[in-house]
Amino acid sequence: MKFFVDTAEIDEIKALLETGLLNGVTTNPSLIAKSGRNILEVLKEICALVPGPVSGEVTTTVAADMIAEGKKLAEIADNLVVKLPLTFDGIKACYALSQEGIKTNVTLCFSSAQALLAAKAGATYISPFVGRLDDIAQDGMGLIADICQVYSMYPDIHTEVLVASIRNPIHLMEAAKMGADVATIPPKVIHQLFKHPLTDAGLEAFMKDVASTKQSIL
Ligand code: G3P
């Protein structure tokens, strides 16, 4: 399973790159706004830092403008993926950009029917939002299961399931059990993945015991 981090914060990306766990980055307009950075500048910086795919989202809702923005975004770097909303215009833009060999990530997906449209339009990634469905008492992980099942029925579908709006480690591990291709994870949740009380307790005991020997390796 590929791990992307869902952030536009350069320091967080740099820290995670050092773990070798990071396969890519996703951003959205809210994350860019939170960073306080210029859209094109921050995406260029992230693309140069990260060897894997970096999603940058369009800022308009009209297909012709999305296509123009998508082309401009794609000029930033070979690893830039154009993120488009799952609307009629977004799917039109996805199809047009895909035809030109530009990688796309169709976002704001909340149903398996929408996921099928994105796949048919040639999307590189589909981003179903699990947390936001759970927030309104709908089954976020059920959507991932449905999309994985539908896509698996058609060998000509190459769109990767990119699980988004992940809020906790359970979302991630349920998605992994379903065989989802990618998870985009907030930095906070990535750090939660490392944690286990028995790891902390075990390490504390080992450190205490090694100190009692008055030895060190270096
Ligand atoms: O970037 C898309 C998605 O991961 C956003 O998540 O937490 O704002 O619902 P969230």
Please tell me about this protein's structure:
The protein has 218 residues and is of the alpha/beta class. The longest helix is centred in the C-terminal third of the chain and has 16 residues, at 197-212. It has helices at 10-17, 29-35, 39-49, 63-74, 88-99, 112-120, 130-135, 140-152, 169-177, 187-193, 197-212, and strands at 2-6, 24-26, 54-57, 80-85, 104-109, 125-128, 160-163, 182-185. The chain has an 8-stranded parallel barrel with strand order 1-2-3-4-5-6-7-8, surrounded by 7 helices. The protein is globular. The protein has a single domain, classed as Alpha-Beta Barrel (TIM Barrel). The chain is built from 11 helices and 8 strands. The structure holds SN-glycerol-3-phosphate. SN-glycerol-3-phosphate is lined by residues 6, 26, 28, 129, 131-132, 164-165, 184. SN-glycerol-3-phosphate (G3P) binds next to helix 7.
Quick overview:
The protein has 218 residues and is α/β, with parallel strands linked by helices. It has helices spanning 10-17, 29-35, 39-49, 63-74, 88-99, 112-120, 130-135, 140-152, 169-177, 187-193, 197-212, and strands spanning 2-6, 24-26, 54-57, 80-85, 104-109, 125-128, 160-163, 182-185.
